[in-house]
Each structure stands twice: as C-alpha cells, then as structure tokens.
C-alpha cells in the first residue's frame, strides 16, 4: 500500500482457526502494524499552518490522542470477530479424553452445561442447568450408568464441531436447538444417529437452516414433534411443510403454516425442491 508517497506493507491476517494466535499476542501484532499508518495520516492531515494543528490545536490533540489509543477501527473489528470465532470453536471442542473417562452420557452432559444448556437424565422429572445463583450443584457421577434423554441448547453457540459431543448418545429423546446461530444444514446431517430414539426436535429460529438441511431429517423415523417455525432461509414455507409431512407422516410439524407463508413457488421451483428419499444425502 502506498500513502502520501510512502509505501507500507501489512502481513495478511490469519485465514483459519488454526492460525489464530493467543489473544494478547494477536492484538499486539495488529496494533503495531496499524499504528504507524494512522500516526502518519494524522501528522500529514494537520501539518499545515493554515488549517491544521496550529489553527486548532485542541482538535489536533484530540485526534492524535485517539490515534495513539484506538489506531485502526477496521483492524479492531476484524480482531474482535476472529477472537469470537476462536472462543466459539474452543467452547465446541470435542473432548475425547473426557468421554473416554466418564462415558458418552456424562461427557455430553458436561459439554451441554459448559454451553449453559440444560439436561435431563433417565427417570428424572426436572431439568438441570448450571445456575450461578444456586449454591448446590448436581453431581453428575450420581447418574453414571443412566442415559441422557433430553438436552436443551436453545440460544447457545453449539456448532457442527460441538454436535460431535452428542452423536454417541444411545437414548436421546428430546433435543432443543432453538435460536442457535451456528446450526446449519451440515449440522442437521449429523442427527442421523438419533433415528431410533429422537422424539422431539426444535430448530425454530435457526437462521442458517435451509430446505436442503431439512431434507436430511428423513432418517428420524420416530420423530413425533418437529418445530421449524421462523426459518428465514427457507423459501416457500407452505410447500416445505407439506413435503415434511409426507416425509415424516407420524410427526407433528410446528410452523411453516399459512401465517408464515409469504410467497408461492413456480412450477420449476417446485420440481427443484421436491424430495425423494433416494435423492437425499447426508
């Protein structure tokens, strides 16, 4: 980059999660790179005696103060986004050692609680979730040997990577993924291990789910209730609801009714989104 006749070179930011450095070092590198450019810009902008710093020293002092502390706003935003993704991937990490030590049910329960979700074990009537206001906490080892039957991860940062902590559950009946921002079509392709046990599933408000991902649910033959309300990425919702009802005839479909239907597909679009089990892949 060349600014005011001076050339600058900036190293490329990390492009994958594996390249992300620890937060302190990551922030330091970017700030050092951007500080020189901002300082030079401010100096050149207010170096003139006619309308620059000498004309309004207070204004120049404020801008110089800001440049010394905030540097490049775009860089800060970029760093923030990468740190959020780094934190999300860390939270969704599949802890193989934990599952091997305590078993898949206890390991999955610990993962759900880490994401501030709720759980319910076999023969348990009440839901349990980590609540910092409660002095007493559940001892999960008391449930060793019992199956984890219900999971509520609504509003959490569960992702494709995190779902791998759940796929070995043998008796999961209820799964709530309402308003999970990272649940997408790829995630729905991971639910086939629950084909023989899952009875209720909520995908309400998952903005990344499309009709292609919903087609993967044909494996869930024992599903009794499916909530697919408020899916903005799914077009022609009334038609999709009809297809879901044909694909899962014993399942009660919530959402995608007349109140959510805002458009009607053309004949060509109907053919494009028609589903047959032989054409569905996960």
Automatic annotation (TrEMBL):
Q: Quick one: where's region Disordered?
A: 262-282
Coiled-coil regions in this chain?
none
Polar residues: bias regions: 273-282
Database matches in InterPro entries: LRR_dom_sf (IPR032675)
Which superkingdom does the taxonomy of this entry point to?
Eukaryota
Entry's Gene3D superfamilies? Answer: Ribonuclease Inhibitor
SUPFAM superfamilies, alphabetized:
RNI-like
Q: What family does this chain come from, according to its entry?
A: Belongs to the ATP synthase subunit s family.
Subunit structure, interactors included: Interacts with incompletely assembled mitochondrial NADH:ubiquinone oxidoreductase complex (complex I).
The protein's role, per its UniProt record: Required for the assembly of the mitochondrial NADH:ubiquinone oxidoreductase complex (complex I). Involved in the assembly of the distal region of complex I.
**Protein name from the UniProt record:** Distal membrane-arm assembly complex protein 2
């Amino acid at each position: 980059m060349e600014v005011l006749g001076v050339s600058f070179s900036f190293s490329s930011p990390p492009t994958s999660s594996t390249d992300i450095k620890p937060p302190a070092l990551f922030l330091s590198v970017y700030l050092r790179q951007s500080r020189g450019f901002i300082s030079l810009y401010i100096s050149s902008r207010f170096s003139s005696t006619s309308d620059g710093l000498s004309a309004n020293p207070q204004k120049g002092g404020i801008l110089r103060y800001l440049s010394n502390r905030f540097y490049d706003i775009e860089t800060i935003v970029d760093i923030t986004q990468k740190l959020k993704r780094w934190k999300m991937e860390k939270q969704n990490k599949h802890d193989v050692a934990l599952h091997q030590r305590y078993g898949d049910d206890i390991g999955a329960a610990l993962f759900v609680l880490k994401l501030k979700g709720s759980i319910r074990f076999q023969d348990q009537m009440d839901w349990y979730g980590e609540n910092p206001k409660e002095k007493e906490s559940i001892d999960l080892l008391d449930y060793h040997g019992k199956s984890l039957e219900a999971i509520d991860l609504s509003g959490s940062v569960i992702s494709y990577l995190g779902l791998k902590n759940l796929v070995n559950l043998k008796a999961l009946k209820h799964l709530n993924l309402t308003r999970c921002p990272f649940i997408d079509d790829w995630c729905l392709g991971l639910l086939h291990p629950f084909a023989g046990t899952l009875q209720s599933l909520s995908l309400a408000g998952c903005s990344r789910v499309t009709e292609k991902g919903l087609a993967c649910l044909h494996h869930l033959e024992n599903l009794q209730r499916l909530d697919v309300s408020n899916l903005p990425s799914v077009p022609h919702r009334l038609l999709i609801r009809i297809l879901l009802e044909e694909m899962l005839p014993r399942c009660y479909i919530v959402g995608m009714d007349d109140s959510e239907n805002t458009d009607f597909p053309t004949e060509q679009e109907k053919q494009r989104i028609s589903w047959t089990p032989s054409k569905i892949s996960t």
